[in-house]
Design goal:
Blueprint (H helix, E strand, L loop, with lengths): L3 E4 L6 E4 L9 H14 L1 E4 L6 H9 L12 E2 L2 E9 L21 E10 L7 E5 H6 L3 H8 L2 E4 L1 H4 L2 H4 L3 H13 L3 E4 L1 E3 L6 E3 L6 E4 L4 H15 L5 E4 L6 E5 L3 E5 L8 E9 L5
Parallel strand pairs: 2-3
Antiparallel strand pairs: 1-2, 3-14, 4-5, 5-16, 6-14, 6-16, 7-13, 7-15, 8-9, 8-12, 10-11
The structure holds succinic acid.
The site of succinic acid has 10 residues, from β6, β15 and β16.
Protein backbone atom coordinates (compact mmCIF):
# COMPACT_ATOMS: atom_id res chain seq x y z
CA UNK A 1 0.00 0.00 0.00
CA UNK A 2 1.42 3.40 -0.87
CA UNK A 3 0.60 6.41 1.29
CA UNK A 4 -1.38 9.21 -0.37
CA UNK A 5 -2.34 12.64 0.94
CA UNK A 6 -5.29 14.78 -0.18
CA UNK A 7 -5.36 18.29 1.21
CA UNK A 8 -8.76 19.56 2.45
CA UNK A 9 -8.51 23.36 2.81
CA UNK A 10 -5.73 25.92 2.25
CA UNK A 11 -5.48 26.53 6.02
CA UNK A 12 -5.32 22.95 7.33
CA UNK A 13 -6.30 19.32 7.01
CA UNK A 14 -5.55 16.31 4.84
CA UNK A 15 -6.94 12.82 4.27
CA UNK A 16 -4.38 10.01 4.41
CA UNK A 17 -5.02 6.86 2.34
CA UNK A 18 -3.00 3.71 1.91
CA UNK A 19 -2.38 2.82 5.54
CA UNK A 20 -3.84 0.29 7.99
CA UNK A 21 -3.63 1.68 11.51
CA UNK A 22 -4.27 -1.72 13.10
CA UNK A 23 -0.84 -2.89 11.88
CA UNK A 24 2.56 -2.10 13.35
CA UNK A 25 3.82 0.86 11.33
CA UNK A 26 7.28 1.02 9.79
CA UNK A 27 9.80 3.76 10.53
CA UNK A 28 9.13 5.22 7.06
CA UNK A 29 5.37 5.28 7.63
CA UNK A 30 5.79 6.98 11.01
CA UNK A 31 8.17 9.57 9.53
CA UNK A 32 5.64 10.21 6.75
CA UNK A 33 2.83 10.75 9.30
CA UNK A 34 5.00 12.98 11.50
CA UNK A 35 5.87 15.19 8.50
CA UNK A 36 2.27 15.23 7.26
CA UNK A 37 0.96 16.19 10.71
CA UNK A 38 3.34 19.12 10.99
CA UNK A 39 2.50 20.27 7.45
CA UNK A 40 -1.30 19.79 7.47
CA UNK A 41 -1.99 20.17 11.23
CA UNK A 42 -4.77 17.56 11.16
CA UNK A 43 -4.91 14.20 9.41
CA UNK A 44 -7.98 12.06 8.74
CA UNK A 45 -7.98 8.29 8.17
CA UNK A 46 -11.10 6.63 6.83
CA UNK A 47 -12.44 3.13 7.48
CA UNK A 48 -10.07 2.17 10.33
CA UNK A 49 -11.98 -0.23 12.62
CA UNK A 50 -9.30 -0.42 15.31
CA UNK A 51 -9.73 -1.63 18.88
CA UNK A 52 -9.01 0.73 21.79
CA UNK A 53 -5.75 -1.17 22.41
CA UNK A 54 -4.68 -0.65 18.77
CA UNK A 55 -5.58 3.04 19.02
CA UNK A 56 -3.44 3.27 22.15
CA UNK A 57 -0.55 1.46 20.39
CA UNK A 58 -0.81 3.79 17.38
CA UNK A 59 -0.82 6.91 19.60
CA UNK A 60 2.11 5.63 21.68
CA UNK A 61 4.31 5.83 18.56
CA UNK A 62 4.26 9.61 18.96
CA UNK A 63 4.92 10.00 22.70
CA UNK A 64 3.79 9.31 26.24
CA UNK A 65 0.01 9.23 26.69
CA UNK A 66 -1.98 11.46 29.01
CA UNK A 67 -4.64 10.12 31.39
CA UNK A 68 -7.41 12.64 31.87
CA UNK A 69 -7.74 13.59 35.56
CA UNK A 70 -11.52 14.27 35.46
CA UNK A 71 -13.26 13.14 32.24
CA UNK A 72 -14.38 9.47 31.97
CA UNK A 73 -11.87 6.98 30.56
CA UNK A 74 -12.17 3.33 29.54
CA UNK A 75 -12.00 1.30 32.80
CA UNK A 76 -9.40 -1.16 31.50
CA UNK A 77 -7.44 1.38 29.37
CA UNK A 78 -7.33 4.75 31.18
CA UNK A 79 -5.22 6.30 28.39
CA UNK A 80 -8.36 6.18 26.21
CA UNK A 81 -10.83 8.93 27.04
CA UNK A 82 -14.47 7.92 26.58
CA UNK A 83 -16.56 10.73 25.10
CA UNK A 84 -19.99 9.09 25.30
CA UNK A 85 -22.52 11.90 25.12
CA UNK A 86 -26.31 11.75 25.21
CA UNK A 87 -29.30 13.22 27.00
CA UNK A 88 -28.09 12.07 30.41
CA UNK A 89 -24.42 12.92 29.85
CA UNK A 90 -24.36 16.20 27.99
CA UNK A 91 -21.57 17.21 25.61
CA UNK A 92 -19.28 19.92 26.99
CA UNK A 93 -16.81 20.30 24.12
CA UNK A 94 -18.95 22.64 22.01
CA UNK A 95 -16.47 25.46 22.73
CA UNK A 96 -13.36 26.31 20.71
CA UNK A 97 -10.57 24.76 22.73
CA UNK A 98 -7.08 23.32 22.76
CA UNK A 99 -6.89 20.08 24.74
CA UNK A 100 -5.45 20.07 28.26
CA UNK A 101 -3.78 23.52 28.25
CA UNK A 102 -4.22 23.39 32.05
CA UNK A 103 -1.07 21.25 32.03
CA UNK A 104 2.53 22.59 32.06
CA UNK A 105 3.14 20.33 29.05
CA UNK A 106 -0.08 20.35 26.99
CA UNK A 107 -0.59 17.56 24.45
CA UNK A 108 1.33 17.64 21.18
CA UNK A 109 -1.63 15.92 19.59
CA UNK A 110 -4.67 13.73 19.99
CA UNK A 111 -6.14 10.80 18.08
CA UNK A 112 -9.92 10.59 17.99
CA UNK A 113 -11.88 7.56 16.76
CA UNK A 114 -15.59 7.69 15.86
CA UNK A 115 -17.34 4.68 17.41
CA UNK A 116 -21.04 5.53 17.37
CA UNK A 117 -22.65 8.47 15.61
CA UNK A 118 -26.03 10.14 15.60
CA UNK A 119 -28.12 9.82 12.44
CA UNK A 120 -27.28 13.45 11.65
CA UNK A 121 -24.96 16.04 13.18
CA UNK A 122 -22.09 15.62 15.64
CA UNK A 123 -19.50 17.12 13.27
CA UNK A 124 -16.22 18.53 14.59
CA UNK A 125 -14.52 21.73 13.42
CA UNK A 126 -10.82 22.48 13.62
CA UNK A 127 -9.15 25.85 13.19
CA UNK A 128 -5.54 26.59 12.33
CA UNK A 129 -4.26 28.83 15.12
CA UNK A 130 -1.19 29.49 12.92
CA UNK A 131 -3.28 30.74 9.97
CA UNK A 132 -5.24 32.88 12.45
CA UNK A 133 -2.01 34.35 13.83
CA UNK A 134 -0.59 34.95 10.34
CA UNK A 135 -3.69 36.95 9.36
CA UNK A 136 -3.24 39.50 12.17
CA UNK A 137 -1.62 42.88 11.46
CA UNK A 138 2.08 43.23 12.29
CA UNK A 139 1.52 45.74 15.16
CA UNK A 140 -1.09 43.44 16.74
CA UNK A 141 1.19 40.41 16.39
CA UNK A 142 3.96 42.43 18.03
CA UNK A 143 1.61 43.38 20.91
CA UNK A 144 0.60 39.73 21.50
CA UNK A 145 4.08 38.25 21.12
CA UNK A 146 5.31 39.26 24.59
CA UNK A 147 2.16 38.33 26.53
CA UNK A 148 1.36 35.33 28.74
CA UNK A 149 -1.97 33.92 29.92
CA UNK A 150 -3.27 31.76 32.74
CA UNK A 151 -5.09 28.49 32.13
CA UNK A 152 -7.37 26.73 34.60
CA UNK A 153 -8.71 23.17 34.60
CA UNK A 154 -11.80 24.40 36.49
CA UNK A 155 -12.90 26.67 33.61
CA UNK A 156 -14.03 23.74 31.46
CA UNK A 157 -14.49 21.32 34.35
CA UNK A 158 -16.55 23.15 36.98
CA UNK A 159 -17.11 21.42 40.32
CA UNK A 160 -20.87 21.94 39.82
CA UNK A 161 -20.80 19.22 37.12
CA UNK A 162 -17.74 17.14 37.94
CA UNK A 163 -17.70 16.94 41.76
CA UNK A 164 -21.23 16.07 42.72
CA UNK A 165 -20.69 12.91 44.78
CA UNK A 166 -18.05 11.78 47.29
CA UNK A 167 -16.01 9.69 44.84
CA UNK A 168 -16.02 12.38 42.12
CA UNK A 169 -15.19 15.08 44.68
CA UNK A 170 -12.02 13.23 45.67
CA UNK A 171 -11.01 12.73 42.01
CA UNK A 172 -11.77 16.41 41.34
CA UNK A 173 -9.75 17.67 44.30
CA UNK A 174 -6.80 15.50 43.22
CA UNK A 175 -7.04 17.03 39.72
CA UNK A 176 -7.08 20.60 41.07
CA UNK A 177 -4.06 19.81 43.26
CA UNK A 178 -2.17 18.13 40.41
CA UNK A 179 -2.99 20.94 37.96
CA UNK A 180 -2.76 24.36 39.66
CA UNK A 181 -3.15 27.49 37.48
CA UNK A 182 -0.52 27.50 34.77
CA UNK A 183 0.91 30.24 32.56
CA UNK A 184 1.63 29.81 28.84
CA UNK A 185 2.65 32.29 26.14
CA UNK A 186 -0.27 33.85 24.25
CA UNK A 187 1.62 33.08 21.04
CA UNK A 188 3.62 29.86 20.92
CA UNK A 189 6.20 28.68 18.40
CA UNK A 190 5.71 25.21 16.95
CA UNK A 191 8.84 23.23 17.98
CA UNK A 192 9.25 21.63 14.52
CA UNK A 193 7.75 23.94 11.87
CA UNK A 194 8.74 27.08 13.84
CA UNK A 195 5.36 28.60 12.86
CA UNK A 196 3.80 30.91 15.42
CA UNK A 197 0.25 30.19 16.58
CA UNK A 198 -2.29 31.68 18.99
CA UNK A 199 -2.23 29.64 22.18
CA UNK A 200 -5.16 31.02 24.16
CA UNK A 201 -8.47 29.16 24.16
CA UNK A 202 -12.00 29.64 25.40
CA UNK A 203 -11.87 26.23 27.09
CA UNK A 204 -9.17 26.93 29.66
CA UNK A 205 -7.67 30.44 29.38
CA UNK A 206 -8.82 32.72 32.21
CA UNK A 207 -6.87 35.96 31.58
CA UNK A 208 -3.83 37.58 30.04
CA UNK A 209 -1.40 38.28 32.89
CA UNK A 210 0.01 41.59 31.67
CA UNK A 211 -3.38 43.26 31.03
CA UNK A 212 -6.15 44.52 33.29
CA UNK A 213 -9.14 42.18 33.49
CA UNK A 214 -11.21 44.47 31.26
CA UNK A 215 -8.43 44.71 28.63
CA UNK A 216 -7.81 40.96 28.82
CA UNK A 217 -11.50 40.15 28.30
CA UNK A 218 -11.67 42.41 25.23
CA UNK A 219 -8.50 40.99 23.67
CA UNK A 220 -9.45 37.36 24.37
CA UNK A 221 -12.96 37.92 23.05
CA UNK A 222 -11.55 39.32 19.82
CA UNK A 223 -9.08 36.43 19.47
CA UNK A 224 -11.76 33.77 20.07
CA UNK A 225 -13.91 35.33 17.33
CA UNK A 226 -10.90 35.64 15.03
CA UNK A 227 -9.89 31.98 15.49
CA UNK A 228 -13.42 30.86 14.51
CA UNK A 229 -13.36 32.64 11.12
CA UNK A 230 -14.29 30.13 8.39
CA UNK A 231 -11.09 30.93 6.46
CA UNK A 232 -9.01 29.20 9.14
CA UNK A 233 -11.29 26.22 9.72
CA UNK A 234 -12.54 22.94 8.36
CA UNK A 235 -15.62 20.95 9.34
CA UNK A 236 -15.47 17.14 9.41
CA UNK A 237 -18.63 15.06 8.93
CA UNK A 238 -17.80 11.80 10.70
CA UNK A 239 -18.43 8.26 9.58
CA UNK A 240 -18.01 5.37 12.02
CA UNK A 241 -14.35 4.19 12.07
CA UNK A 242 -12.98 7.54 10.90
CA UNK A 243 -9.91 8.61 12.84
CA UNK A 244 -8.63 12.16 13.23
CA UNK A 245 -5.08 12.96 14.41
CA UNK A 246 -4.54 16.66 15.15
CA UNK A 247 -1.56 18.74 16.14
CA UNK A 248 -2.78 20.30 19.40
CA UNK A 249 0.11 22.80 19.42
CA UNK A 250 -1.25 24.69 16.44
CA UNK A 251 -5.01 23.97 16.15
CA UNK A 252 -8.20 24.43 18.13
CA UNK A 253 -11.38 22.41 17.79
CA UNK A 254 -15.12 22.55 18.45
CA UNK A 255 -17.49 19.56 18.63
CA UNK A 256 -20.95 20.55 17.39
CA UNK A 257 -23.59 19.58 19.97
CA UNK A 258 -26.58 19.38 17.63
CA UNK A 259 -27.54 15.69 17.94
CA UNK A 260 -29.36 15.30 21.27
CA UNK A 261 -31.31 13.27 22.26
CA UNK A 262 -29.26 10.88 20.09
CA UNK A 263 -26.00 9.35 21.32
CA UNK A 264 -22.43 9.88 20.06
CA UNK A 265 -19.39 7.87 21.21
CA UNK A 266 -15.77 8.84 20.51
CA UNK A 267 -12.50 7.45 21.89
CA UNK A 268 -9.56 9.83 22.33
CA UNK A 269 -5.88 9.07 22.93
CA UNK A 270 -3.93 12.16 23.98
CA UNK A 271 -0.16 12.48 23.50
CA UNK A 272 1.79 14.60 25.97
CA UNK A 273 3.87 17.42 24.45
CA UNK A 274 6.55 19.93 25.49
CA UNK A 275 6.35 23.10 27.51
CA UNK A 276 5.14 25.81 25.10
CA UNK A 277 7.50 28.73 24.28
C1 LIG B 1 -12.42 16.79 21.86
O1 LIG B 1 -12.99 17.83 22.19
O2 LIG B 1 -11.26 16.54 22.19
C2 LIG B 1 -13.18 15.75 21.05
C3 LIG B 1 -13.89 16.34 19.89
C4 LIG B 1 -15.11 15.57 19.47
O3 LIG B 1 -15.72 14.89 20.31
O4 LIG B 1 -15.46 15.65 18.30
Amino acid sequence: MSLRITQITPALGAIVDGIDLSQTLSGDQLAFLNDALVKHQILFFKNQPITPQKQLDFAANFGELHVHPIYPVLPDLPEIMLIDTHENFLPDNDTWHIDVTFSETPPLGAILAAKKLPSLGGDTLWSSAAAAYDALSEPFKHFLDGLTAQHSVAKSFPASRWATNKQDKEKYENAITKYPLVTHPVVRTHPISRRKALFINDGFTTHINELSLVESNIVLDFLYKHIARPEFTLRWRWEVNDIAFWDNRITQHYAVADYLPERRIMHRATIIGDKPY
